[in-house]
Amino acid sequence: MNLDSAHQAIEDPGDTRPILIVPYMWIGDFVRGHTVVRVLKQRWPNRPVDLLVTSLCAPLVDYMPGVRAGIVWDLPRSRLALARQWGLAEQLRARGYGTALVLPRTWKSAIAPALAGIPERVGFVGEARFGLINQWRWGEKALPRFIDKNAALALPDGAPLPAEWPVPQLHVPPEESARWRQANGLGTGPAVALAPGSVGASKRWTYYPEAARLLAERGLDVWVVGGPGEKALAAEIVAAGGPRVRDLTGTDLRNGILAMAAASVAISNDSGLMHIAAAIGTPTMGIFGPTSPYHWAPLNGLAATVQTSTAVPCQPCHRPVCTMNDHRCMRDIPASDVVAIAGRVLAEAGAGVAR
């Protein structure tokens, strides 16, 4: 039973104290964190919800229903940066939060909410955060999936988990994606967005250049979407695919969001862009090798989950780099299969495609 259809108890509709969520800051995890927002809004419809966010993820907040504001504050990963923590705490204190949900289990993530004096600081036991978290939750390791661990913090302590969580949502106005296409000279025809990057080399499918060529031969426009780390791979894909293939990689995540919103179908590794496309509602094909779709596929569902039909005994290994079986979990997924599936997805979506 989805929480949208459940009779979720509303707690004190007169409570208007703002709530802060300290989420995980990887792009895909940040998108999945919108489920936490939706659970909180069902529980307290009149309490504003803000998100702490990095500069990288900040554009996502603009498209998240139910989020009042993003607090953009970049903290270095390699050191405590106490002065930066104090600066953040001053901003949080000025906003008068009544509750903070600290999703990561790290000591560092709980410092600023504690320094800001937020009265209720909710989080799982971890890293000796005594005094930083004052509403402890136990049993995180017993929760089966990443989303269960996060969204459980938005429920009352001890409440049973629902069979289904509200899915993440990103609402991109059609006129905004249309303006983006026009500004980039991308026309109005059906297009396939390819997201060849990921955190961890083992999650990257091998045959994007060949897939781009086959898609272009079918008369489709192909967009390569990703960050600056995918520039070299994008050049290889463009060279293989020809003039119908465009390199749209860059440093601004908003560009990737709008590309995924404008595309007819998205083909992606297990990555943040996969979660973005699915949350927007673009038909999304997720290619999985070393990771488990059960644990890491979007809650929104996928138009197709693509995995090898070869029996690979080490799959899933969840390792960032393949150390055995010559990366067969990805190498044994041929480009022709992926393109054939994309054709079916496009047909089901009503987008024209040459045969």
TrEMBL record:
<comment type="similarity">
    <text>Belongs to the glycosyltransferase 9 family.</text>
</comment>
<dbReference type="InterPro" id="IPR002201">
    <property type="entry name" value="Glyco_trans_9"/>
</dbReference>
<dbReference type="GO" id="GO:0008713">
    <property type="term" value="F:ADP-heptose-lipopolysaccharide heptosyltransferase activity"/>
</dbReference>
<dbReference type="GO" id="GO:0009244">
    <property type="term" value="P:lipopolysaccharide core region biosynthetic process"/>
</dbReference>
<keyword id="KW-0808">Transferase</keyword>
<dbReference type="InterPro" id="IPR051199">
    <property type="entry name" value="LPS_LOS_Heptosyltrfase"/>
</dbReference>
<dbReference type="Pfam" id="PF01075">
    <property type="entry name" value="Glyco_transf_9"/>
</dbReference>
<keyword id="KW-0328">Glycosyltransferase</keyword>
<dbReference type="GO" id="GO:0005829">
    <property type="term" value="C:cytosol"/>
</dbReference>
<dbReference type="InterPro" id="IPR011910">
    <property type="entry name" value="RfaF"/>
</dbReference>
<protein>
    <recommendedName>
        <fullName>lipopolysaccharide heptosyltransferase II</fullName>
        <ecNumber>2.4.99.24</ecNumber>
    </recommendedName>
</protein>
